[in-house]
Amino acid sequence: MMPTPVAGDAGGLHSKTTKEAPVSKRDCSGFTIIELMIAISLLAVILTLAVPAFGRFIEQQQLTATANRLVGHLQFARGQAITRGTLVAACPSRDGRTCTGGNRWEQGWIVYLDPEKAGQPAEGGDVLRVVQAMPEHVMHSGGRHRVRFKDSGMAYGTNLTIRICSRGNPEAARAVIVSNPGRVRATREVDPAECGG
């Protein structure tokens, strides 16, 4: 309540207080059921729009991580070929000990010493790295079944492209490219048709 001066009071020493309207319990009670229903409806609409976009974001990050992992292992193979002064290869592998002979990299892969160009590790000791299966992605290369690096760091054969595709979203695909000079890189520039889209 605020004091207000009384009319005719010269010094304003006497004041009269004015009363404000009483506050009802309803004004202090919070949300009404209608307001709560509107808030829940708005939240549902926002989540309906946000959740699929977040799912696609997670999927793209997983594909990027898989591509980066493969790039790292292929760069490791190239580095080992240069360091050891011998041929080092990488190929798809189901069991982590031998090459499968196919071009399906999602079943896992190995990096191994291949000084005799045998196409398979000679013994278990020749395997330098093993990566287990990644069934959530489809990873395939055009025609080559392995990548082999010379002691100079150059790769044998033609350029190799390994496509990393999402089972549900071909537009999110990535690719790992190995050039003849031995450069290994990842890219997002993949035709969705190459992933079945």
TrEMBL record:
Please list the residue ranges annotated as the General secretion pathway GspH domain: 66-182
- The principal localisation class reads membrane
Q: What is a single cellular component term in the Gene Ontology annotation?
A: type II protein secretion system complex
Where in or outside the cell is it found? Cell inner membrane
The biological process GO terms on file are: protein secretion by the type II secretion system
The residues that cross the membrane are 31-54
UniProt keyword annotations, A-Z: Cell inner membrane, Cell membrane, Membrane, Methylation, Transmembrane, Transmembrane helix
Superkingdom of source? Bacteria
Q: Which InterPro entries does this one have?
A: N_methyl_site, Pilin-like, T2SS_GspH
Q: Which SUPFAM superfamilies match?
A: Pili subunits
Membrane association type: Single-pass membrane protein
What Pfam families does this protein's entry cite?
A: GspH, N_methyl
What ranges does the record give for the region Disordered, renumbered to this chain?
Answer: 1-21
Which positions make up the signal peptide?
none
The family classification in the record reads: Belongs to the GSP H family.
Protein name as it appears in the record? Type II secretion system protein H
Q: Show the taxonomic lineage.
A: Bacteria, Pseudomonadati, Pseudomonadota, Gammaproteobacteria, Chromatiales
